[in-house]
Fold this protein.
Amino acid sequence: MSKKILILGASILQIPAICKAKDLGYVVLVADFDPLAKGFEYADKKYVVSTNDLDGILKIAKKEKIDGIMTLASDIPMKTVSYVAEQLNLVSVSTDTAMKTTNKYLMRETLANDNISIPKYFKVDSLTHFLEVIELMDTKYIVKPTDNSGSRGIYLVEDKMDVSELKKIYRDCLTQSRSGELLVEEYMEGPEVSVETLTINNKTTIVAITDKLTTGSPNFVEMGHSQPTQLSENEIKDIKEITVAAVNSVGIDNGPSHTEIILTSSGPKIVEIGARLGGDNITTHLVPLSTGINLVEACIKISLNDYYDIPKEKKQGSAIRYFSSKQGDISAIKNVETALALNGVEQIFFTKTVGEKVDYIKDSTNRIGFVITKAENAKLAIKICEEAMKIISIEIK
C-alpha cells in the first residue's frame, strides 16, 4: 500500500512537490485555505483549511493516517508541520526549531548565543520603544516584521526622518506582522547569497549557493537568482562554514534549510535561516538545472522516512530573472514564443495576464512573471535571461 503524504500549501510554489510526490507513487493530500488554489487539481485529495490551523491539520492527519508531512517554499506552515510530526511521531524538525526558524527575533537570539555573525538588532513592540531604539542605530537601518516573508513590510531607513515619517514606517511594517512585533537591525552592505542545504541524520550537505539580485532600497524584493555563485573560493569557504554552524545552532537535524547571507566587509553574516526548501523557483528549478540534484524529491522521501542518496553533483549554470513593471493594466504580452525559442531558455511564466492590474514592485506578490534559463555557467545563463526579456514586450496602460 502506498504511503500517504500531506503537503501544506497548494499555491504554484507547492505544485512541484505535489507532482513529484505523485510521480514517486505516493498518495498526496493537500491542505490550503484557498478553495481555488491551483495545486488542488494535482492532488489525490484536497482539504480547504488554513495551514496555520494546528489542530485542524492534526485532525486531518489522524483521520487519513498519514506517513509524512511537509511544505515547500514557505516559512509560515513550518510550525504546523513540526507540531503534527511531533504528535504523530513523523520525521520533521522539532517545534522548537520551527519557532527559531520562523520568528526572526528568536532566530537572532539563538544565533547570537552561539556566536554566529548576525547584524546588530533590537525587537520592538510599541511605537515608543521603536522611537527609542532608532536613536541607537546608525544612519542606515532596516525595519521589518519578526514573522513574515516574501519581502513584506521591509523598509530601509537611510536618513534622519521626522517623527511623522517614522510613525508611518512603523505602522506600515506593523500591518505585515502577525505578532505585533518588529525588528530594527543594522543595514548590511555586500553581495547577497542564499544557501540550499540538506541534512540527513545530523549530517549537512551544501547543495548550492545562489547569487541574488534585489530591487535594493527601500523594499529589497528579489528580482533574480543564479547558480553557481560567482564569489571567490575563500568567500565560498566562509559561507559554507557559517551556514553549517547556523543549521546546527537552530537544530535542523533532518530535512532542508534555506539560509540567506550577506557578505559584508567583516565577513559573512546571517540574514535569515529557514527549515524548508527555498522559494522563488530556486529549489524547484535552478538547483536541478545547475546540480542535477532534486531537493524536492529528497525532502519528500525524508519526510516519509524513505531512503534518499544524494547523487553526484553535475556543474552547470542556471538563472531566473523576474520582470519589473509599472502601475497600470496589462494590455498586451508579445513575443513570448520567440523568446522561448532561444537556446537555453527553460521556462517563461506569467502570474498576471492581459487585462489584470499590476503595481510597482513593493513585495514579491507584485512580480508579474519570470524567465528561467540554463547554460554551461551562471554568467551565460544570466545573459540568456536578459536576452529573452528584451525580446518580450509587456504593454501596460
Remarks:
- Residues 215 and 221 are 5 Å apart (CA to CA).
